[in-house]
Fold this protein.
Amino acid sequence: MTTTPVSPAVSSAVSPAASPKVAVADLTEIRVREPGRIAAAWAARQRRPLVREDGRMLIVAADHPARGALGVRGAGTAMASRSDLLDRLVTALERPGVDGVLGTPDILDDLLLLGALDGKVAIGSMNRGGLQGASFELDDRFTAYTAAEIAARGIDGGKMLTRICLDDPGTVATLEASARAVTELAEHQVMAMVEPFLSTREGGRVVNQLDPDSTIKSVHIAAGLGASSAYTWLKLPVVDDLDRVMDATTLPTLLLGGDPQGDPQDTYASWGHALDLPAVRGLVVGRALLFPPGGDVAAAVDIAAGLVHGSVNGSVNGNGVGA
């Protein structure tokens, strides 16, 4: 029998379907013996448009641990287990209403090897230097993804936390670094997701000012960063008087979830109202979906997906609750 030769270029490009199933327990062994497999997997990843036909997105956030923020609802080490976090993320990404994930390189590389990023949006978190509770917490310097790495790996966007403290001279360095990242991402025609806050120090803690006027001021400062705004999106908190806040910008905006407090139904109701505003194009939510009361990640994700997209492949019923 004659065998048709296969070129090296074809034989080395193994489709995800042909790859052996990878489990969380396999990740360390792959990193030890085949570190080059990560770059190859990024090159082979099946990509999709940034937004669906409805122009909206639901992104699951998982970049908190790299800033030392492991707590959820007062449980200080809720996100300490990487295997548990990855299991929750994979569950969320398997739901049809979830568009993608926001994370640092370690988390996105893990999810990539697990096969969870095919057909999903991947947003790289760029600055994690302002560690929670540190004396230098407001120093939001860039310690993770660079714009060049994001472009080289085919990652769909870069996110930067941009806290603005008028009493801290170091804020100007944060603004300069964020502006540079926005410019460089735009040069690669890649989304820049800017998350601004007006922040203060109160009793030794950094506190984000979540009143409408402070949020509006942060929006105007963030929108002006970089040499081009063509690829800039904002990531903003849900605050009071959100109609007036969103009138401060024409930039597409995703709303963040934050550390969940109170009744989840109240949270869902606030998201639902906010999503009716034209500039609001979706949600970026981490802990509220990954660590819901009762622990049912899939059900929490389906509720959020129903708010963002409506019914998705039958996964959300007419009441916005997972069927």
Observations:
- Confidence is low (pLDDT under 50) at residues 1-18, 313-323.
